[in-house]
Amino acid sequence: VFPFLAILHAVFISLFLGVEYQDGTLRNKLIAGHSRGKVYLSFLLTAIAGCFAILLAWGLSVGFGILKFGWFTAPAGSLLLSLAVILLLTAAEAALLTLLCMLLTNRAIAAVTAILLMFGLIILGSAFYNALCEPETLSAAIMTGDGFQVGPPEPNPRYISGTTRLVFQFAVDALPTGQAILLANGELMRPGLSLLASAGILLLAGAAGLAIFQRKDLK
What we know:
By secondary structure, this protein is mainly α. Helix content is 73%, strand content 8%.
């Protein structure tokens, strides 16, 4: 469930910013004397806060699980580190969606494009993750007079190795949706890399969106 929260983030941000365009609120803020930089940053912070609210609602379901199955067995430090990764990857997704939706003035087009973007990132993260999960060898089942037996291990042609494996692993650790998949499966092994990647996406998407919005024609 957690990786698909990105879809809810896309719906929220596209509708929120779409209303700002549709109702003319955005232009009114600029006419009132607010700079474009402040307007964009205010929308980005609001988008992040909204995504955190969605995250909090999802967290309530985790609370019910704790009541039923007990508290986490992982050390407190690991839990806090995972929480930091969750918050930062959510902020990174919000930054990407804000960049997209602030550039698309049509609310319907923005909503569809945002959902497709997040869905595509989920598929991409899943594709990299599934490729990494391929075993190095496979053992085929052989029918003998004594029934089915496991044959000798043979190389798996779909196994990813070498530089390609490093690239795939980096992609899973760096993509917000890849991080979400790792967290959902309890396999986040490089939280430091994930934190740096999410911070980089947040800063780059924020800076790019701010620079483009400064020059965007809002008439």
